[in-house]
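Dear support,

I submitted the protein below through the web form. The confirmation email said the job was done, but the results page showed an empty box. After a refresh the structure appeared. I'm attaching both so you can tell me whether what I see now is the final result or a partial one.
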Amino acid sequence: MWNIVADENMPLVEELFFEIDGKASYIKRLAGRGINSDDLKNTDILLVRSVTQVNQELLEGSAVRFVGSATIGTDHIDLDYLSQHNIQFANAPGCNAQGVAEYVLASIAYWAQSRDIDLTTVEVGIIGAGNVGSRVANALDVLGIQYVLNDPPLADDGDDKDFVSLEAIQKCDVVTCHVPLVKDGRHATYHLVDDAFLEGMPENSLLINSSRGAVVDNSSALGIKQAGKAIDYILDVWEGEPNINVELMEQTLIATPHIAGYSQEGKIRGTYQLYQALNQWQSLADSVSLQELLPKAPKWQWGGSLDGLYQSLKPYYDLEADDKRMRQVKGEVRQKFDHLRKTYPQRLEFLDTL
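What the results page shows now:
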């Protein structure tokens, strides 16, 4: 028998992992942030999301042989420890990229409506041109909205996109972040958007962060607003989650509890990619296809005009409703942050063009 511990918010774990190579599985569901070493004593397989810190403290003395994270990022995983102890690891790059791109598109559209801005005059600066950033760029291409890209690691790898400097991104009307959290090294992203960056952004501009909370210096973001700068924030990720900066939340145009990628399809892809990785590890064939699992969803049809863009998107994704749910528990948001994520209503992807 395989013993599996899985984050309680991951879909289809029972359906996909009920049996592995003819052996039945015993699956224990736990709150991701609460998983501890005692839970893993006899565990073979650990399936997590971004809220579980997977490191020596968690794994030492356990029987875990496979760790799967249904996320793009790996900053919550001690990859060196896993490698040193011959623990197989898999993550799910790109699983929720379309959901995040749709969140960003809705955010830009909502900002334009709220501030009476003509999107034909706007330039969007995209920091990070990987799975998410490239999809944001594709959506903007379709809509005819101008954008520029910044991604030094991809540029170093010889990617032929027309990248610009971070200083050029800083001058854009909208800046949206799509990078992993890297704390040191030549391409560190920790506090990439800091006091100096925010000071240099244009008046009446917009900053969107749906990557990792610490890519933006939250204290600086609050200080800039308190000093009177006319800048809007749409923040889905926060430093110190779930103990977020409530004062900063109050200063945002839109605040959401780390749900930008929480489309139903994104969650399903994340679990499925771990299922595929575990099968590969065990030299097994997949017994079910991804397409069999994905829901059928109505798709948004663009009418060809950017006027009223948010109102045309709202029936497919109501960004304001997500903001309202978070603000309704403002006084207890730190205590209820994970609950907001756990009880997040089903959201289906609506773009065919990504």
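Response: this is the final, complete result; the empty box was a page-load delay. The two ends are 41 Å apart (CA to CA).
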